[in-house]
Amino acid sequence: MLSTLVTGMAELITCDGTGPDGLGRRDRSALVAEDGLIGWIGPASQAPACDRRIDLEGRSVVPGFVDAHTHLIFAGDRSAEFVARMGGESYDGGGIASTVEATRAAGEDELRRLLAHRVAELRRQGTTTVEIKSGYGLSVTEEVRALRLAGEVTSETTFLGAHVVPAGADRADYLTLVTGEMLAAAAPYARWVDVFCEPASPHAFDEDEARAVLTAGAAAGLGLRVHGNQLAPGPGVRLAVELGAASVDHCTHLSDADVGALADARATTVATLLPGVEFSTRSPYPDAARLLAAGVPVALATDWNPGTCASSSMPFVIALAVRELGMTPAQALFAATATAAASLRRTDVGRLVVGAPADLTVLDAPSFTHLAYRPGVPLASALELPG
Ligand code: NIG
Ligand code: FE
Fold first, then answer.
1. What is the CA 130 to chain-centroid distance, rounded?
2. Which of 63, 145, 238, 348 is the most buried (most CB within 10 A)?
3. pTM, entire model
4. Distance 307 CA to ligand 1 centre (A)
């Protein structure tokens, strides 16, 4: 087992919950990685001898980002839809059908190649843990195929058969399929179940339909996640809280009652904000400051998908959160790491502590604040440890 000493850090942010904002900031520190795990963290002056040494020469280290909401398994391109939106069109989920068509038409090797390319792109931007949803298959075999491929790159796989009602299908029949045969086939490949609960979209699912999907998923042993309150006020947040979901995502249009329900459920349900979506759909941003003031745990994710956010960049999301959602740089970093991990009910990732995976993200900057201060600059990348 080879050990690596990581030293020369301007700033080490552990997000271990200590110190101001829970950032666990350490100056003049070093870290030892051994067999992929963190073996030691302490003052650089007391660093033990190691087999190898990486001198970061004044760069900073933060926990690898946890992107807990993506739709990475897809083929095709919807850039024309984005261009139309920038010209004034609005988003209602109707474009999902074209991605379903392109994804079904793609061979397995092609999907695997696209996925590997996307995961490598995430790492180059500092993301080391990723959740991946199905939802562009919408048939038993296609949803299983997507989850099987996702499972080759992450343990955080989410069954999203209830993304939209596929073209030509009867709503009630499709719901029976999703909660029955499709769920049974998908469950062995999935950790989570998710539903696009959005009564404002003719393509998505209303409260009763979403409840049926989530209760069936829970009965099949899956944890719960919800797409809620994205396009308009609606029942998604309250349903997620009622059913004990680990995360409710988007949270763009919230009533005071929604915020109160999330605050009461703070030990169970995380509010995951996806500001890349509002950027890419030219929509009003969610209000992170309002949620944080109420004591709601807030996570950040990309939602990387071909329709509403084609950005894979957590640094971009952090910069948006600071500029547009009312978060401080410290809150945004914590949301993109430790709280994002909590939204996956994980404590082993999203923070740098002894015994945890050595998922280090290096910033070519003297401080993590540069993530928001220098938007669009490729400062962050996952550290590839030797051997
Ligand atoms: O999270 N809102 C529903 N699903 C995705 C968008 C999917 C798509 O448009 O392809 C989202 O925004
Ligand atoms: Fe999504």
1. 6
2. 63
3. 0.98
4. 6
